[in-house]
Amino acid sequence: MSAPNNSKPTALSSVHERLGASFTDFGGWWMPLRYGSDVAEHLAVRQAAGIFDLSHMGEVLVTGPEAAAFLDYALVGRLSAVEVGRAKYSLLCNEQGGVIDDLIIYRLGQDEFLVVPNAANTPAALAALEGRTGTPDGHTFDVTISDRTEATALIAVQGPASEAILLEVVTADSVEAVKALRYYAIVDVVVETGDGELPVKLARTGYTGEDGFEIYVDAEADPEAPQRLWTLLESAGQSYGLVPCGLASRDSLRLEAGMPLHGHELSESIDPFSAGLGPVVALKSKVSFVGRDALAAIKESGPQRKLVGLANDTKRAARPGYAVLHDGDTVGEVTSGAPSPTLGHAIALAFVRPDLAEVGTELQVDLRGKPTPFTVVALPFYKRER
């Protein structure tokens, strides 16, 4: 199955075809939506492990003597405080405080950072970063920004068996590095593929709420490496219950974990404080960054809406765009919603009036003309045992 002209295949598209995946366009990429059952893929990640193709994600390399200072100015977080080998979740905001994108940034070296935007937002994030190399007072940061998206493949292994699977494929010299890798950290390891050694960057990060890894592969240096690595992981994970997983299960997993999706819980018209991400904004430790004045004002006055978790005791799902009601009045809108495979009942994320955001508040969601009870619950909906 070839990708439509307006969708880009990943380095692993032929693998997904072999596995019988159903495809969809996502952020301009031709991506596997599912291989069989969404629920089975979801539960495999919760109980064993799943393997995902994330090669649609952006990879932007920021290097130079002022790389840290530049990212401090461009993003809302304080990236200069991140240690080499660690990662930080941050936001790229506009001057009004709206979220252009949420990203993970890895500090690969003293003057080298890997910025990972979301697929559809990569062009906008890249343009915003390039537009912030100069400040209003005339300073130009000494940095180089390189788009490495097309040259990089990204494979994720997520779930409680993920570390055991990784230990099956890395060389003996890399075993301790895998075991010692902390959450939100990255390290160089070597995989033994059978056709030789393959160096990769291994990060202990993910979007599922489970322990897991994201593996960055240089597909430019070796175009066949992503397929060899996937096949190796697939084989090594067979005895652990590893299954290939598509975008559908990735979405339900991140929803259970209470993680935002840009275009739903985040956008250029949504500020971090409304989305419950106020702690990400470094107002106290940074005096200057793009959007600071607007964000400081929003924090001072308080957001006009707040993101909450909603749940009920049925499987009738509240879908994006459905109205949230209180005493017959519309007081908000659902941004994401689905039946939770893990919990066995419906869950949703929604923006509501701040006075109705307290845990325990009884609300309703208009499910196709029928007001249905939902309760505000604490986020995340699901939290793994550590």
UniProtKB/TrEMBL annotation:
The Gene Ontology CC terms held by the record are: cytosol; glycine cleavage complex
Q: Which family does it belong to?
A: Belongs to the GcvT family.
Q: Which domain of life is it from?
A: Bacteria
What residues does the Aminomethyltransferase C-terminal domain cover?
305-383
The record lists the catalysed reaction(s) as: N(6)-[(R)-S(8)-aminomethyldihydrolipoyl]-L-lysyl-[protein] + (6S)-5,6,7,8-tetrahydrofolate = N(6)-[(R)-dihydrolipoyl]-L-lysyl-[protein] + (6R)-5,10-methylene-5,6,7,8-tetrahydrofolate + NH4(+)
| Pfam families recorded | GCV_T, GCV_T_C
> What protein am I looking at?
Aminomethyltransferase
In this chain the GCVT N-terminal domain maps to 14-284
| InterPro entries from the UniProt entry | GcvT (IPR006223), GcvT/YgfZ/DmdA (IPR028896), GcvT/YgfZ_C (IPR029043), GcvT_bac (IPR022903), GcvT_C (IPR013977), GCVT_N (IPR006222), TrmE/GcvT-like (IPR027266)
Q: Which residues form the signal peptide?
A: none
Q: How does it assemble?
A: The glycine cleavage system is composed of four proteins: P, T, L and H.
* One Gene Ontology term of the molecular function aspect: transaminase activity
Task: Summarize where substrate binds, as residue positions.
Answer: E214
